[in-house]
């Protein structure tokens, strides 16, 4: 292999730049550009990318410190080693890595990726619950319902009663979207109490007993008497739920808070999250808080009846088994194991084996790296520099003298008789 | 029926012991005999012409020749019959020389009587012989060579130059085998790849050779002359017709470093590379174990030769003969834990040393101590690692490691004259041409030889290597420090040996290598017709022997296929479907796979049936018979032998055509004398002996039955004598249980050379039977 490259051979350059919380790593050639975008704030330090990287180009940063407040990237990349294969970006559960390919590369469908999804089915009304409950603010519900004022203007003189049956009300909040007389008292959603509201009140000053809300309530929880006839009908519930895939971590809070079973979530992994009983006493939930901060599903909480052995608790249904908590916890309080990885099909290609190995390593933690430890490398020897040789100086008269004698010898051998005798002699010797 | 009987004098060989005139008188009166003659030398031109004339004149339709062993002249007299216009299978030869006159020279009276008895047996069979036809089958003249090492290459080139089309299937990405990886080869110290590469290139370019690399055989169906072979080729992901083999661009941009497989881990390669610099075909391939799919190689290749969508290809080939040249595998030195291979990097194998010495190896020809990268000052070779060693399951000698280590020692000494080299050996085996001289030269170069087993390699406190060994000449056990320890690892059969042997029904020896048809006389034939084996696939050998065997298999293939057709052997099994109950026993018993149950009836592949007769003996309903040596014929011989019980005891003996009949003949050739009490019936194999035959013999008055076959493990039909042993031992038990002494049935497993044992066995048997009394004696005695 020659040291110099020809003009039309490919050269590969790697670059990095940073913008806001994004590190952008680039691999640039004459015919292509690959950009690997890493959002370090989005990253939870779960370390799955570090596990699967085939060339060990990724390394975990100080997760414990980051979880308790240090502002640093949880995953550090060695740009020299990275080959921009895209395994990290295809298997990041929170979409912190994104790989963009420009150039003649195999299509995205040629590489498997995490198969997790979230779907809203037609049981959805929509209502306000999932948007309020989502801990990552990934859900946005847009309602297409006219307000009460647009249908019936406020009747000052109306008289009547309005009552909400607290047993029937499921805090869907539709009434409050429709009419300002309803006030939803919000609260923090917690793993044990996912509802984002703690109370629903009616401001009777704003209510004119128009009764339009009665039919709106999906649970028939509102009773109104009195009011005046206005001939308007309750509008139908229309709206759309938009979920931002980049922000959604498939924690399934929305699914659990939805009273109508309208959300189906397919989690990226199946597995188990357990607390290590003998380490729980070391946990310091109020001082440390690392797992609370780092968990993309926000499933950690301090139980009400907490004691030495019950300092911290989990709502395992919300877990996506990413393992970020294990990296963040300084006291080794929890254990995460994965039993299954949901992924798209691995197509037949030269790289299928490595990608399959990467996916399996998420479960087994064993990765097949090429072992070049036994290779021996020695420096190339540089050949000695070339020096022009000096021709020796010889007196030509020597050769001239010799030539005469040589010619005499030649004439002897041209003598046929001599030659015949010579050969005959030889024959005698040989026989 | 018009039978002509010819009693041969064979000069004085028969005539001076057996009274041939008396025989003529007695035979003349037998039924169906139209003509009896006695002739001086029946096999001579005169004798043969006499027979032909008689056939025409007297209208003879079958002939009996009482003379020497059929193993000598059966074919001669078959040809005579054909010339006379008869079917060649209407001839019976009776052995009154090797098995009569030569072994009973002390008893001419009995010998003549026995001669008469043997002729009666022969006539009984002859009356029942049917004409048999020999079919010719068109054969496919293509040849498959499995394995692209030096043996396979030699075979392929010889065949291709002779005009035969060859398919070569190699599982690695390049041909050349292990020889292509070596540095220099003994005893000339020629550069290995320099002498091999021209042949490798010729294979790739030859119009008569089609090369499949990165390919394996998945199925072989059919028979000699018409095999159907399925070959699966794994994708390289590189287009062979576009890749220039430069690997400058693709390999350079690939960022995945992998351990070099052909450097045994001592060198690094990329995930896309060419196997060795001189690879044939000179095409890159992607290592699917480690490629991650970054896509850069495809962009970088200037010839657009990379195709990620390439798929596995399956091809079905039709060939007439198969040459197995799958080579060997090196012993895994890590199994000898005491030598610390794999735990310390300064302990390497001889193959790894070859790669270091090789100019296209990882260090470009510099031998260095792996841990320090410096030239070694003291090198030890440990011989017989993984060979001659029961503890790792390899009692065999790998034949070439002694010479290989001598060669490596010479090369090291030439390059590094200051280095001290010691070879720790048990024996030095330098048995080839100019090998002993090579050994002397090695010694004269100052290389030290210490005789004694090296017990272990340990590390001292400084991490240096210490070798503990015995020095038998100095009679001491001591230890020494070395920089570099080289283990001379032995040869083992490849992993593909088991797959190939299953596909082709080849058998392997106890050492795991393929077994050959006869250890001495047929070195490149396998037990299966049409399949030949060459090179280290049949056992460790040097390159010269592998090349010789490669050429030999090519010659054998040409001999087999050149005429374009093959004659089938009519000595096959046949099934009477009306009796068949499709129990499937025959299918299980036939190890050649030539009888199968189809549509609830057993069916024989008559073209390729080997004719051993085991299925026929095993069949519980007697639905299977053999075309030549039918049940009827054998029963007729038994009855004829026992018609008149001329002596006591009288033994009926069934001898197999291969080892035991030849052994009896050899006893005659050696002029050993044994008692006349035995009447021999020839069969193809001891496996043919149906328990019914034994019972018939005893029931008609035989006092004893002797069944003799090849030694276990040497059966001509590979497994049939085991089947015979099982069956007949069961019969012995049953006989004993029914009150007949089991010792009346004697089983003898004997090889051709053991004629002494044959003679003494008969003597012992006669003595035993004399003691036991005539058949039935024990029944009466027990009743009393």
| Percent range of helical residues of chain A | 10-25%
- Gyration radius from CA atoms of chain B, angstroms: 33 Å
The CATH topology of the domain at 2-113 in chain A is: Alpha-Beta Plaits
Largest sheet data of chain B: 5 strands, parallel
Rounded radius of gyration of chain A (Å): 40 Å
Descriptive report:
The complex is a heterodimer of chains A (431) and B (784). Chain A is built from 13 helices and 18 strands. With 431 residues, chain A is of the alpha+beta class. Among the domains of chain A are: 112 residues, Alpha-Beta Plaits; 93 residues, Alpha-Beta Plaits, CATH 3.30.70; 75 residues, Alpha-Beta Plaits (2-Layer Sandwich), CATH 3.30.70.20. In chain A, strands 1-2-3-6 form a 4-stranded antiparallel sheet. A two-stranded antiparallel sheet of chain A has the order 4-5. The N terminus of chain A is likely disordered. By secondary structure, chain B is an alpha/beta fold. In chain B, the strands form 13 sheets. Chain B has a 5-stranded parallel sheet with strand order 10-7-6-18-29, covered by helices on one side. Chain B has a 5-stranded parallel sheet with strand order 20-27-21-22-23. A 4-stranded parallel sheet of chain B has the order 2-1-3-4, sandwiched between helices. In chain B, α2 packs across α3 and α11 packs parallel to α12. Chain B is elongated, with a radius of gyration of 33 Å. Chain B starts with a strand and ends with a helix. Chains A and B meet through α11 of A and α8, β13 and α9 of B.
Task: Describe how the helices and strands are arranged.
The complex is a heterodimer of chains A (431) and B (784).
Chain A: E1 13-19, E2 22-28, E3 33-39, H1 48-52, E4 58-60, H2 63-67, E5 75-77, H3 87-91, E6 97-102, E7 117-120, H4 129-133, E8 139-143, H5 148-151, E9 160-164, H6 174-178, E10 182-186, E11 197-202, H7 212-216, E12 222-226, E13 239-243, H8 253-257, E14 263-266, E15 269-275, H9 290-294, E16 300-301, E17 313-314, H10 324-328, E18 334-341, H11 352-364, H12 396-414, H13 416-430
Antiparallel strand pairs in A: 1-2, 2-3, 3-6, 4-5, 7-14, 8-13, 9-12, 10-11, 15-18, 16-17
Chain B: E1 3-8, H1 20-28, E2 33-39, H2 45-58, E3 62-67, H3 70-83, E4 91-95, H4 97-101, H5 108-128, E5 136-138, E6 143-146, H6 150-161, E7 166-169, E8 184-185, E9 190-191, H7 192-205, E10 209-212, E11 215-223, E12 226-233, H8 249-253, E13 257-259, E14 268-270, E15 272-273, E16 285-286, H9 296-300, E17 313-319, E18 321-324, E19 328-330, E20 347-349, H10 350-357, E21 378-385, H11 401-415, E22 420-425, H12 435-444, E23 448-451, E24 454-459, E25 465-471, E26 476-482, E27 484-489, E28 491-493, H13 496-504, E29 531-533, H14 543-561, E30 565-567, E31 573-575, H15 585-589, E32 595-598, E33 601-604, H16 614-618, E34 624-626, H17 631-642, E35 651-656, H18 659-669, E36 678-683, H19 691-699, E37 704-709, H20 720-737, E38 745-749, H21 755-772, H22 777-783
Parallel strand pairs in B: 1-2, 1-3, 3-4, 6-7, 6-18, 7-10, 18-29, 20-27, 21-22, 21-27, 22-23, 35-36, 35-37, 37-38
Antiparallel strand pairs in B: 5-30, 8-9, 11-12, 12-17, 13-14, 15-16, 19-28, 24-25, 25-26, 31-34, 32-33
Helix pairs in contact in B: 1-5, 2-3, 5-17, 6-7, 6-14, 10-11, 11-12, 18-21
């Amino acid at each position: 292999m020659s040291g110099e490259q020809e003009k039309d051979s490919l050269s590969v350059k790697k670059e990095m730049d940073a913008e806001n919380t994004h590190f952008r790593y680039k691999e640039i050639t004459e015919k292509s550009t690959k950009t690997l975008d890493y959002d370090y704030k989005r990253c939870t330090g779960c370390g799955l990318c570090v596990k699967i990287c085939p060339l060990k180009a990724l390394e975990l940063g100080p997760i414990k410190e980051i979880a308790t407040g240090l502002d640093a990237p949880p995953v550090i990349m060695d740009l020299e080693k990275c080959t921009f294969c895209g395994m990290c970006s295809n298997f990041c559960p929170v979409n912190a890595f994104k790989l963009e390919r420009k150039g003649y590369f195999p299509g995205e469908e040629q590489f498997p990726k995490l198969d997790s999804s979230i779907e809203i089915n037609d049981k959805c009304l929509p209502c306000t619950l999932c948007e309020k409950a989502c801990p990552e603010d990934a859900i946005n519900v847009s309602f297409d319902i006219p307000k009460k004022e647009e249908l019936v203007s406020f009747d000052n003189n109306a008289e009547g009663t309005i009552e909400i049956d607290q047993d029937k009300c499921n805090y869907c909040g539709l009434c409050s979207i429709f009419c300002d007389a309803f006030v939803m008292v919000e609260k923090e959603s917690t793993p044990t109490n996912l509802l984002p509201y703690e109370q629903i009140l009616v401001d009777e000053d704003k209510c004119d007993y128009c009764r339009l809300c009665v039919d709106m309530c999906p649970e028939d929880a509102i009773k109104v008497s009195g009011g005046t006839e206005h001939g308007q009908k309750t509008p139908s519930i229309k709206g759309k739920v938009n979920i931002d895939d980049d922000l959604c971590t498939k924690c399934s809070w929305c699914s659990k808070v939805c009273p109508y079973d309208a959300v189906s979530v397919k989690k990226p992994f199946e597995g188990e999250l357990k607390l290590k009983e003998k380490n729980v006493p070391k946990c310091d939930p109020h001082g440390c808080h690392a797992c609370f901060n780092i968990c993309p599903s926000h499933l950690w909480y301090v139980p009400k009846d907490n004691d030495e052995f019950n300092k911290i608790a989990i709502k395992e249904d919300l877990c996506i088994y990413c393992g970020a908590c294990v990296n963040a916890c300084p006291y080794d309080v929890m254990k995460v194991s994965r039993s299954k990885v949901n992924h798209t099909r691995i197509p037949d290609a030269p790289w299928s084996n490595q990608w399959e190995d990467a996916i399996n390593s998420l479960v087994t933690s064993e990765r097949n790296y090429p072992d070049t430890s036994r290779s021996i490398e020695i420096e190339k020897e540089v050949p000695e520099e070339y020096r022009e040789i000096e021709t020796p100086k010889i007196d030509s008269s020597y050769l001239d003298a010799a030539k005469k004698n040589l010619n005499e010898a030649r004439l002897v051998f041209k003598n046929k008789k001599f030659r015949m005798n010579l050969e005959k002699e030889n024959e005698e010797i040989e026989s | 029926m018009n039978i002509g009987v010819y009693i041969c004098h064979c000069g004085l060989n028969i005539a001076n012991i057996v009274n041939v005139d008396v025989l003529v008188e007695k035979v003349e009166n037998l039924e169906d005999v139209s003509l009896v003659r006695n002739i001086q030398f029946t096999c001579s031109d005169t004798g043969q012409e006499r027979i032909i004339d008689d056939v025409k004149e007297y209208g003879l339709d079958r002939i009996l020749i009482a003379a020497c062993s059929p193993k000598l002249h059966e074919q001669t007299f078959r040809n005579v019959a054909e010339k006379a216009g008869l079917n060649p299978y209407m001839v019976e030869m009776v052995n009154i020389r090797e098995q009569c006159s030569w072994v009973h020279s002390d008893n001419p009276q009995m010998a003549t009587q026995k001669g008469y008895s043997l002729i009666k047996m022969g006539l009984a069979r002859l009356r029942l012989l049917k004409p048999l036809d020999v079919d010719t089958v068109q054969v496919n003249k293509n040849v498959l060579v499995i394995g692209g090492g030096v043996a396979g290459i030699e075979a392929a080139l010889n065949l291709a130059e002779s005009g035969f089309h060859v398919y070569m299937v190699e599982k690695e990405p390049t041909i050349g085998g292990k020889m292509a990886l070596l540095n220099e080869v003994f005893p000339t110290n020629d550069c290995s790849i320099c002498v091999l590469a021209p042949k490798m290139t010729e294979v790739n370019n030859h119009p008569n050779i089609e090369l499949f690399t990165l390919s394996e055989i998945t199925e072989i169906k059919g028979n000699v002359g018409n095999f159907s072979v399925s070959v699966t080729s794994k994708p390289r992901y590189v287009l062979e017709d576009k890749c220039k083999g430069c690997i400058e661009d693709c390999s350079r941009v690939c960022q995945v470093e992998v351990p070099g497989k052909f450097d045994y881990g001592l060198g690094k390669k990329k995930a896309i590379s060419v196997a060795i610099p001189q690879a044939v075909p000179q095409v890159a391939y992607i290592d699917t174990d480690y490629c991650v799919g970054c896509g850069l190689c495809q962009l970088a290749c200037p010839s657009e030769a990379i195709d990620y969508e390439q798929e596995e290809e399956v091809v079905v080939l039709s060939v007439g003969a198969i040459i197995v040249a799958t080579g060997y595998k090196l012993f895994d030195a890590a199994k000898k834990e005491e030598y610390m291979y794999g735990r310390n990097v300064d302990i390497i194998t001889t193959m790894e040393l070859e790669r270091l010495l090789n100019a296209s190896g990882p260090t470009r020809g510099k031998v260095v101590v792996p841990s320090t990268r410096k030239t070694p000052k003291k090198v030890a070779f440990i011989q017989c690692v993984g060979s001659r060693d029961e503890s790792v399951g390899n009692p065999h000698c790998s034949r070439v490691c002694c010479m290989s280590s001598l060669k490596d020692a010479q090369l090291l000494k030439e390059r590094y004259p200051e280095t001290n080299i010691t070879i720790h050996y048990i024996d030095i085996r330098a048995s080839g041409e100019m090998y002993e001289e090579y050994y002397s030269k090695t010694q004269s170069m100052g290389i030290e030889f210490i005789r004694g087993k090296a017990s272990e390699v340990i590390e001292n406190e400084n991490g240096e290597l210490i070798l503990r060994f015995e020095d038998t000449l100095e009679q001491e056990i001591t230890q020494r420090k070395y920089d570099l320890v080289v283990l001379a690892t032995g040869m083992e059969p490849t992993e593909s040996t088991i797959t190939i042997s299953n596909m082709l029904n080849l058998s392997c020896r106890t050492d795991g290598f393929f077994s050959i048809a006869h250890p001495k006389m047929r070195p490149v034939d396998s037990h299966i017709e049409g399949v030949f084996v060459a090179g280290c696939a049949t056992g460790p050998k040097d390159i010269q022997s592998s090349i010789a065997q490669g050429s030999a298999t090519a010659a054998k293939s040409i001999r087999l296929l050149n005429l374009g057709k093959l004659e089938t052997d009519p000595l096959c099994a046949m099934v009477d479907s009306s009796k068949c109950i499709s129990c499937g026993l025959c299918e299980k018993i036939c190890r050649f796979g030539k009888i199968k149950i189809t549509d609830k009836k057993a069916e024989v592949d008559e073209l390729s049936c080997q004719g051993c007769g085991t299925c026929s003996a095993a069949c519980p309903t007697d639905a299977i018979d053999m075309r030549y040596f039918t049940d009827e014929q054998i029963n007729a011989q038994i009855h004829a032998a026992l018609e008149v019980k001329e002596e006591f005891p009288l033994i009926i003996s069934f001898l197999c055509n291969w080892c035991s009949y030849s052994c009896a003949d050899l006893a005659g050739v050696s002029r050993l004398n044994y008692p006349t009490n035995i009447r021999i019936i020839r069969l193809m194999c001891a496996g043919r002996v149906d328990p019914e035959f034994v019972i018939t013999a005893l029931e008609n008055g035989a006092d004893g039955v002797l069944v003799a076959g090849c030694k276990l493990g040497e059966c001509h039909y590979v497994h049939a004598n085991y089947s015979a042993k099982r069956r007949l031992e069961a019969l012995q038990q049953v006989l004993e249980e029914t009150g007949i002494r089991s010792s009346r049935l004697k089983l003898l497993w004997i090889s051709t050379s053991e004629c002494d044992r044959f003679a003494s066995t008969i003597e012992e048997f006669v003595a035993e039977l004399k003691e036991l009394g005539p058949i039935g004696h024990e029944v009466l005695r027990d009743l009393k």
